[in-house]
């Protein structure tokens, strides 16, 4: 089966990271692989039974082929910028910004579990920056954040 047909495991012989691999480094490599569109590298970082949840849309992607497949098929124009990573043992939280040409800026807070050097689970909370109009009662306490909201982007 060809790579285009979805058999991502057949692309390369997966390199299994050392069990002592730094969980934060594994998650950073995952996001770097996404930015580079290095689908083989991303696949190698995922446990065979990985589950990735996108809470906002109530979806689960089970297995490396599904996780890589949905990201590979996502319409182009996006980039990935890791804003921060915090780890506590096997639990790793990443704060990632994903601008998309002509759409706006997305942010994701991803809570991953890394076991034996592989991502076993990730609960991802995606938002569109500026998607929610703040209620009027908060106006005396807040100010707009310095982030481009979702919507058509203009170059100036």
Radius of gyration: 17 Å
Low-confidence stretches: 1-17, 150-156
* CATH fold-type name: Nuclear Transport Factor 2, Chain: A
- Measure the end-to-end span: 46 Å
Helical element count? 3
Number of strands: 6
Total domains, how many?
1
In the CATH scheme, the class would be Alpha Beta
Main sheet, how many strands, which sense, barrel?
A: 6 strands, mixed
Secondary structure category? alpha+beta
Shape category: globular
Which strands sit side by side, in order, in the main sheet? 2-1-6-5-4-3
Portion in strands: 25-35%
What is the helix/strand order? HHEEHEEEE
Commentary on this structure:
This protein is an alpha+beta fold and 156 residues long. It has a single domain (16-129), classed as Roll (Nuclear Transport Factor 2, Chain: A), CATH 3.10.450. Helices cover 19% and strands 35% of the residues. It has three helices and six strands. It has helices spanning 23-36, 39-44, 64-73; strands at residues 46-54, 59-62, 81-88, 91-100, 104-115, 118-128. The protein has a six-stranded mixed beta sheet. A hairpin with a 2-residue loop joins β5 and β6 (118-128). It is globular and about 50 Å long. It starts with 22 loop residues before the first helix and ends in a 28-residue tail after the last strand. The model is unreliable at 1-17 and 150-156 (pLDDT under 50).
Keyword list:
156 residues; Nuclear Transport Factor 2, Chain: A; 6-stranded mixed β-sheet; 6 strands; globular
């Amino acid at each position: 089966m060809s790579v285009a047909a979805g058999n991502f495991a057949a692309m390369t012989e997966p390199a299994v990271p050392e069990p002592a691999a730094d969980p934060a480094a594994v998650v950073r490599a995952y996001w770097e692989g996404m930015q580079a569109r290095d689908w083989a590298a991303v696949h190698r970082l995922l446990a065979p039974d990985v589950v990735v949840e996108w809470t906002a849309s109530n979806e689960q992607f089970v297995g490396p082929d599904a996780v890589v497949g949905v990201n590979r098929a996502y319409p182009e124009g996006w980039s990935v910028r890791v804003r921060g990573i915090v780890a506590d043992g096997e639990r790793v939280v990443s704060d990632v910004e994903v601008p998309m040409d002509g759409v706006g800026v997305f942010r994701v807070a991803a809570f991953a579990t890394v076991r034996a050097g592989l991502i076993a689970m990730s609960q991802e909370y995606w938002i569109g920056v500026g998607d929610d109009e703040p209620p009027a009662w908060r106006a005396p306490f807040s100010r707009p954040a310095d982030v481009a909201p979702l919507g058509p982007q203009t170059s100036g």
